[in-house]
Amino acid sequence: MKLQLSLFLVFAFYASSAQYKYGLTPTTYNQYQENIRKNPEMELIDLEKAIPGLLLDIRYATTNNFTGEVIYNLAKAYARKPVAEAIAKVQSDLKKKGLELKIHDGYRPYSATVKFYEVYSDTTFVASPYQGSRHNRGCAIDLTVIDSKTKTELNMPTPYDSFQEEAFPTYPLKDKEAARNRAMLIAAMEKRGFKVYDSEWWHFDFVGWEKFDVMNIDFEELMK
Ligand SMILES: [Zn+2]
User: Fold this and answer.
1) Which pLDDT score is estimated for 123?
2) Distance 107 CA to ligand 1 centre (A)
3) 134: closest CA among 214, 72, 193?
4) Cα(77) to centroid of ligand 1, in Å?
5) Counting C-beta atoms within 10 Å of the first and last residue's C-beta, which end of the chain has fewer, N or C?
6) From ligand 1's centre to the CA of 170, what distance in Å?
């Protein structure tokens, strides 16, 4: 009985610490609550609430992603307050041209970053769990552009989450229309304080992301 109990405790310890084996201690919900009391800029904002009508296509809440597994229980997109405000500005800039954003991912709990790395360990395309992802800080956004009327995606260099060279934002494209659309998206995002990621045309980091901590908070907790 005693042995069983200690075996159980050892197992429980490993199960709970499995996602912290890369030397990071991400912020939990209680710490986050404390942080946003001190600094309201740290708050994770629900993008659908902040930007009415914003279209989401959260692939990690489906099996249609590179892991083939459902990673998120809820199809939600959150970002830190200043990041959400900047995305709202991009949306209104694009709307003037008859275009809109479609969001594939925003804030991502640290446990998901660990899972991605354990499925696919090439850090060109997935974040290293030793540093965590800028998505874990609520400062990165994956997105594309759609036509406001038809809701169809603009022609872009690759599909979302394509692990190919063509996904690099500097890749010389033969398809001139895709090159123009990519350049338009990058310019629209840069204007509002984002920088495109070196190997993914759809991933943008908010400038100043270093000031925000890595978090491991589920969407369910954020919706409390
Ligand atoms: Zn991303």
Assistant:
1) 84
2) 9
3) 214
4) 12
5) N
6) 17
User: For residue 192, which of 103, 46, 83 has the smallest C-alpha distance?
Assistant: 83
Say how many Å lie between the CA of residue 135 and the centre of ligand 1. 6
Judge whether residue 120 has pLDDT over 60.
Answer: yes
Owner of token pair 């060109």: 124
Tell me the CA distances in angstroms from 147 to 54, 84, 97, 102, 154, one per residue in order.
12, 21, 9, 10, 7
Q: How far is the CA of 139 from the centre of ligand 1 (A)?
A: 10
Query: What is the pTM assigned to this prediction?
Result: 0.90
CA atoms within 13 A on the CB side of 173: 20
**Ligand 1 centre and the CA of 48: distance in Å?**
18
Rounded Cα gap, residues 90 and 191, in angstroms: 8
What residue segments make up the domains of the chain, in order of their start? Answer: 27-222
Q: Is the dihedral of CA 206, 191, 77, 141 positive or negative?
A: negative
Provide the Cα torsion 150, 73, 68, 212; round to 10°: 80
Q: Give the residue carrying structure tokens 């609430």.
A: 49
The CATH code of domain 27-222 reads 3.30.1380.10
Residue 63: per-residue pLDDT? 95
Ligand 1 centre and the CA of 7: distance in Å? 39
The Å distance, Cα 152 to ligand 1 centre, comes to: 21
Non-local (6+) Cβ contacts of 209 within 8 A are 134, 137, 139, 140
Q: How far is the CA of 131 from the centre of ligand 1 (A)?
A: 15
| Residue 86: band (very low, low, confident or very high) from pLDDT cuts 50, 70, 90 | very high
